[in-house]
Amino acid sequence: MRARGFSLVEVVVTVAIVALLASIAAPLTETVVRRGKENELKTALYRIRDAIDAYKLAADAGYIEKLADATGYPPTLKVLVEGVRDVRSAAGARVYFLRRIPRDPFGDPNRPPEETWGLRSYASPPDSPRAGVDVFDVYSLAPGNGLNGTPYREW
To answer: How many independent structural domains does the chain possess?
Structure first.
């Protein structure tokens, strides 16, 4: 009676095929993970920018306090979470613009979320953003470019 099993050639061919498939799948997995982080970055930027715009609209409408010489933009990102006093309410109610500050998915996970973003004040030019007395915009501090070729700082 003859023993059944695989020959050495069959095993080597099978291992080679599996290794080839794994080498093709590894870069695809990396791209999928990176695309997921880029989608998180887009969402986080949208939420923060939307909250900054809502703060500005509330300040311009007179719903929250605004100094005469102020731009109407929030002084920090934390203000968007901590809220500001609603001047229309006698009970001292607060207006909140964000539940929490999203973290830059490409940023350092050991830093607080508000420190993972670059801040641009209203007085700084768009091609050379700098922090200042207010927060007009945020940008990613991550080095490198996205899958679309645009640097993360310019998103």
So the answer is: 1
Answer for the pair 118, 138: CB distance below 8 angstroms, yes or no.
Answer: yes
Total-model pTM: 0.81
| C-beta atoms surrounding 119 within 10 Å | 20
Q: How far is Cα 116 from Cα 106, in angstroms, rounded to an integer?
A: 8
Is 1 a member of any domain? Answer: no
Pull the structure tokens for residue 108: 């350092």
Q: Measured between alpha carbons, how far is 92 from 14 in angstroms, rounded to an integer?
A: 72
Residue 3 resides in a domain: no
Asked if residue 140 lies in contact with residue 118, where contact means CB atoms within 8 angstroms, the answer is yes
- The CA-based dihedral angle spanning residues 128, 134, 139, 142, taken in that order and rounded to the nearest 10 degrees: 90
Tokens of 131: 């922090």
User: 52 and 135 in contact (C-beta within 8 Å)?
Assistant: yes
Q: Which structural domain, as residue segments, surrounds residue 122?
A: 8-154
Q: Name the most confidently modeled range: 1-15, 20-34, 74-88.
A: 74-88
Q: With beta carbons less than 8 A apart as the criterion, state whether 66 and 72 touch.
A: yes
